[in-house]
Amino acid sequence: MRDASYEFLKKLLQTPGPSGSEGGVASLWREQAQGFAEVRGDRMGNSFATLNRGGSPRVMLAGHIDEIGLMVTHIEESGLLRFSGVGGWDPQVLVGQRVLLQTKNGEVVGVIGKKAIHVMEADERKKVSQIKSLWIDIGAKDRDEAKEKVRVGDVAVVDQGVVELPNGRIASRSLDNRMGAFVVLEALRLLSEEEGLAAEVVAVASVQEEIGLYGARGAAFGLDPDAAVAVDVTHATDTPGIPKNEHGDHSLGSGPVIKRATNLSPIVSEGLISAAESEDISYTLEADSRSTSTDADAIQFTRAGIATGLVSVPNRYMHSPNEMVDLGDIEACARLIALYVKGLGEATDFVR
């Protein structure tokens, strides 16, 4: 991956942006896109970067830019903050984490607390943690002091930055799916360097995926594209306890994962497969007999239906403070999508 792209990816990963509060990271994405595309936002907070306006077919590339987070729900008399999850959490990974609360006066650092094991009853030690039994401690001495810094409804993210690991791997929070927002813009950048592009291509950094696929639905309705490719993470199955017969064989470094599912367009899926094979891009296939639980689902049934495909990157430890991916997979995902879109002509027909 070129240095400038990698630095941009790291900035995206380190900028807080839980569902519903994506403004800061969206601004970063839009600023980057202005170097080679027409850029705008919408009332939901989605970000759009358009290349070759007026071309045909119109293709939407969607990667959601929100991440899972926390929201303050109550401030106790002691100054401790009660919270709920924004998106799906395994509460076990939250215990003892440092968090960054996003407030109107800037970031406030806190620590997620739990009753210490030393003072638990025997039966308590056997129980898994639940969010309702946890709290955020910002060091306030009482409610009044806490309310000077934090309001109910403020959101937070876990304070975990990018860690560079051997073999081209990184660990960070928010790879799900800041990585996807990066990939669609990187694919657009690659296409901006090509000549003879027929399609109008719109990269979308969609919002609120983790709480219901909401942003992609609104973006797709407004764009009304002929086809779309969504980008997200999928489970890497090269760690203990994940059955490959259920989830497929997707290891870090094995390349993009092309989804074949009953609700996706076989025209788009086969086109992605052909593009990968034409340039010897390693890939794996993933199957789903129902829907995909990604933005692809929201896009696919918008308006009269949109021909939609899904490309994913294998991700270890999903929805944790330290997700892990292979940078080569991310780069190959962007290359694959750009190659597929470059091959579309004005006469490409997505009707089946």
Describe this structure in words.
It is a single chain. By secondary structure, the chain is an alpha+beta fold. It folds into 2 domains: 3-67 and 173-342, Zn peptidases (Aminopeptidase, 3-Layer(aba) Sandwich); 69-158, Peptidase M42, domain 2 (Elongation Factor Tu (Ef-tu), domain 3, Beta Barrel), CATH 2.40.30. Helices cover 28% and strands 27% of the residues. It has 10 helices and 17 strands. It is globular and about 65 Å long. The model has no long low-confidence stretch (mean pLDDT 95).
How are the secondary structure elements laid out?
Elements: H1 3-14, H2 23-33, E1 38-41, E2 47-51, E3 58-64, E4 69-75, E5 81-86, E6 98-103, E7 106-113, H3 122-125, E8 135-137, H4 143-147, E9 155-158, E10 163-165, E11 169-172, H5 175-192, E12 200-206, H6 214-223, E13 227-235, H7 244-247, E14 257-261, H8 266-278, E15 284-288, H9 295-300, E16 307-315, E17 323-326, H10 327-342
Parallel strand pairs: 3-12, 3-13, 13-16, 14-15
Antiparallel strand pairs: 1-2, 2-12, 4-5, 4-9, 6-7, 6-9, 7-8, 10-11, 11-17, 14-16
Main sheet summary = 8 strands, mixed
CATH class of the largest domain: Alpha Beta
Total count of domains: 2
CATH superfamily of the largest domain: Zn peptidases
Helical content, roughly? Answer: 25-40%
Q: Brief description of this entry?
A:
Belongs to the peptidase M42 family. The protein has helices at residues 3-14, 23-33, 122-125, 143-147, 175-192, 214-223, 244-247, 266-278, 295-300, 327-342; strands spanning 38-41, 47-51, 58-64, 69-75, 81-86, 98-103, 106-113, 135-137, 155-158, 163-165, 169-172, 200-206, 227-235, 257-261, 284-288, 307-315, 323-326. The chain has 352 residues and is α+β, with helices and mostly antiparallel strands.
